[in-house]
Amino acid sequence: MSIISVNDLVVSFGSGSDFKQVVKNVAFDVEPGETFGLVGESGCGKSTVLGALAGRIKGWSGSISIDGEAVGPKRSRSQLAKQQMVFQDPFGSLHPRHTIGRTLLEPLEIHGFDQRQERVERVLRDVGLPPGFRHRFPHQLSGGQRQRVAIARALILNPGILLLDEPTSALDVSIQAEILNLLKDLRERDKLTYVLVSHDMAVIAHLCNRVAVMLDGQFVEVASREQLLRGSVQHPYTRTLLDGSRGYVPPPKLAS
Amino acid sequence: MATRYFNDLHNWLINEEFSSLRQARLHKAYVLWLNLIANPLALAGFLVVLALVLIATLAPLLANHDPILQDLTMALKPPSPINWFGTDEFGRDVYSRLVYGARTTLYISVLVTVIVAPIGFAIGATAGYLGGWVDVVLMRITDIFLSFPSLVLALAFSAALGPGIENAVIAIALTVWPPIARLARAETLTFRAADFVVAAELQGAGMGRILFRHIVPLCAPSIIIRLTLNMSSVILTAAGLGFLGLGAQPPMPEWGAMAASGRQYLLDAWWLTTVPGIAILLVSLAFNLLGDGLRDIMDPRNA
Amino acid sequence: MPEQSKPILSVKNMSVQFPTLSGVVTAVNNVSFDVGREKVGIIGESGSGKSTTGRAIMRLQPATAHVIADEMRFEDVDLLTASESEMRAIRGRRISMILQDPKYSLNPVMTVGEQIAETVILHERLGRRAARERTLAMLERVNIRDPQRVFNLYPHEVSGGMGQRIMISMMLISSPSLIIADEPTSALDVTVRQQVLSILDDLIRERNIGLIFISHDLNLVKSFCDRVIIMYAGRIVETIEASKLDQATHPYTCGLLEALPSLDRPRDRLETLKRQASWAEA
Questions:
Q1: Do A153 and B16 count as a contact with CB atoms less than 8 A apart?
Q2: Residue C72 sits in which domain range?
Q3: What is the domain range of residue A151?
Q4: Average pLDDT of A124-141?
Q5: Mutate which of C183, C192, C194, C253 to test chain A, going by most A C-beta atoms within 10 A?
Q6: Which residue ranges make up each domain of chain B?
Q7: N- or C-end of chain B: fewer Cβ atoms within 10 A?
């Protein structure tokens, strides 16, 4: 059974002349343990789909069910804990005046977990940080370390699903590799399901089993990892994105 | 030996590899202090404010006369070795009244701050966080208060409430909270869409938790700066009310009232208005300089 | 042709230092390079000093920073001794800089056309009408279809790709001989990036000028530039032909290439960089 099932998802903002449909009738299923990618350019609606899944965006219609349970725009506390989000900007996603320990303790307080200190230490170890980091403030951490903390915060409630919004696009190449490896390890160990939003086809192909290519609020193609690597994609837009991730391609010179 | 100790202390405080939360806090305070002493104007402001606090607390030790005791034989004496700043029309020592007046000034400014900061924050942050009609209603109320000149509004309130220092405090507080609320709203709006606030919401944090645990620590510096800068206008308004007879009541020493009563003797006894006038000027200037300095040091937008 | 082979910019042993509370930080450490009529990429991770290098050449480093060098020569100008007014005449006219986000580089209360025309009026003392003609021609040159309309737009009314094309036209209108582009396409989508780069590429070739292309994107620099300078911890660790980047010898460059997920060479795990202290000392 699918762990995430989305049908006829429509998200719109504004009203009157400002009315804009950002996501138009999107449908997909994600199997447990799978990593599903959403790729596209800015404004295509990929982050909005993720926001609707997370419970961050409230104005949607259609149906979303998570872990077999249909959810609405407003989530209960236990529904929120089933999926957690990791944000793009490691500098903006941690409270600048809270220590790492406080950031990690907060969700445990909200959800009334016990053995809090042990859990904080364990989750820090899971993401490869020493327990002494609890006393530090975000500004004392590097971008990669902050992103590890953000992943730890997402993991501390033991969700089955991680929603990853461009988790490595603000990081240096070498740090990106570490975070991608960490995400792979965690996925295998904890049997996690990921939904990964990215604009980088190489990152998508590295981590995802399947990817939906979005253009103007719609899926133009859902391709498998093998298709991406073989280059056997259907839609010309998917091909453009694949070429783009290889670098600059000089346009064919016209006779002049 | 002592220099080595201070060097070690400096290094321990400047080191960012904290081993405890206490060290982290001390580090923050120490860095603030280093920045403060690097800014001479702010430091001057800080020293004057510190002097005000010291004078107010040590008033009984510093004053060499009873500030209330009248002695008509000694009325309107010019400054002399006995009465450093002269005497007023009832023969009271101006220096001693000035020293005790620091207490009144401090009392008013501290009380106004304590009342205004939480009210302004609560109203502004609620409006900013909830948005929609709550925002509209709360901000229109704020606008009504803002649309009156603050001294006029304070006058009206203290006239309605009756003279007296407590009523003056309430009247001034009523005119000071609206800018704080506006500031808190603006700050809340900038942070409410921040990823760390969204992350907390997605983990089930309620409004109270977000406002008090997440927004307060971020708004606090700018509110403190704003209040410090406002302090001079609070002191001036208090003096103005005192001057008009609506603030502190005789015989309580208050700088504004002292200046007011000296007005009639301005030509014969210049010290009666000049000395409390200079005190008001100095203290409000000091608060302004300190506020400006704090803004340079603490505002994250300058970092 | 000796004029052709002579470098436009020559930097020898340049260092940039910042005094901080806890001592002097050397952001750029003894770097030397030449830029001719070519596209030179500077690659590095954040904090490698690549942007500081670009700014130091323009003498746009923060006031607290110290720049020291044996030589910094741009054409006939000694950048080390040039006065601030000489630098103002050089900036924007003979060396131009394109930054990541055009939104922050454009004045929000002036139309984009006026801003470009302003550059011409300022640097070449042209009349308003002539400046407008030049601007429209330049906008057309960067493939803006309706230059008349775009001339009258305000910066917030244009998209990211359009904004960056406007920046390029503004930077190139005064015929500089060197362009420093600091992550010019990082904020752009893939399809728009291709267009912007191809315009930049054409202009550089056409005018036979030099480009310093500062970026963190290995694939992009490899495919766009002629030569690549790789920086690590404020030092240049390697300089190599872009086409030969895959044969790089320095362990840092190799490590970066290995760490990059690739469609052509899928791997189950990415190699992580094992940093060595010796790279920062070399």
A1: no
A2: 2-94+183-280
A3: 4-244
A4: 90
A5: C194
A6: 1-38, 49-302
A7: N
